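Standup notes, structure subgroup. Blocker cleared on the fe (iii) ion input:
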Amino acid sequence: MRADRLWMNARIATMAADQPGLGAIEKAAIACKSGVICWIGPMSEVPGALTAAATDDCAGRWITPGLINCHTHLIYSGQQAHAFEMSLSGADDGEIARAGHGPWSIVEATRAATIGQLVFQATRRLDVLIADGVTTVESKSGFGFDLWTEQKQLEAARLLPSRRDITLVATYLAAMVEPPGASGDVAAQTDRVCKEMIPRLAAAGLADSVDVVMGDRTFSAGQTARIFDAAVAAGLPVMLHADQLSHSHGADLAAQYRALSAAHLDYADENGAAALARAGTVAVLLPATSYFNRAQQMPPVKHLRAAGTRLAIAADGSPSAPLLSPLLAMNMAAVLFRLTVEECLLGVTRHAAAALGRAAHIGTLETGKACDLAIWDIERPADLVHRIGPSPLHARIWQGLG
Ligand code: FE
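Run returned:
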């Protein structure tokens, strides 16, 4: 067996489901052939016939799967720092909107941006994720509301892998923000999403999945179901922003449609948690949103755990919660939600892969899976969750490259 590359003398957290805990192997080696893991195990068991064109000595460093950030708003123009500044000085949402700095300003700036500008801005955000060892990222549209802008956002997403070595999952996000002084017509928007946007974006191959922001000021449960029906008809899996600001049975709807993931879930209840577990839908926790909102209501981790729902964690990188560090997201999930180190690491590896429907290819270090690695200068995996500050990433390998 001739590998392209062999990493020796490592400590490896495989995150594999058939091993307990992190699936740790001390004094381990991992070999790559054509971008795929061709051998992994203790160094004492490396086959005598295994040779490699290149060998790296990891000097006892830890290797985890390349991190997967499974819920991200990467592609938009504008920023919300002015709104943040005004809110800290006591302004309310109406005053911020009338001053031209509310969420609608992101829509206007994104509509005005060229694809080149969107790619440039998104690449800068992507580089922050990459510095934390991210090898797969999901990127949502959702700041245009019209076909042209949503298409432009998704085309920009499709261009990112030509700029950086990254696996990218593009999601069309149906969202709604009301223009200042006017009320959006959500019913008419639902029609456009179902009849125009999803069929066209799917036919153009621009979307891998469809997400909906369900809530009091965006799409209702009935409207979300219609959008999900259109996605299913177009052959696309669905995701949901669910139960973020109120208990609206979003988790139940996501489960009913066997959604890949349901995100936020701050107000989901025990029944919703159980429904997600039965459907195999991954709960995506976004602690930066809770942090920025100084939320009193936290996701029902106790019920999700009891039900056996898989938990993923993401840095959403949205204009209003612009965190782009999955390491800090893990720390926040541990501090705010009391997730364990094992839960945090599963949340950015195996469970994040499941949240994207990619569990067969990424998220664990096993023979036959993509050779996506993060190599860390740490003493123990808990360092990745505990520390705040510069990334301890030593090297990042994407499909054997890097
Ligand atoms: Fe989001």
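Discussed briefly. The chain has a mean pLDDT of 97.
Next: hand off to the docking folks.
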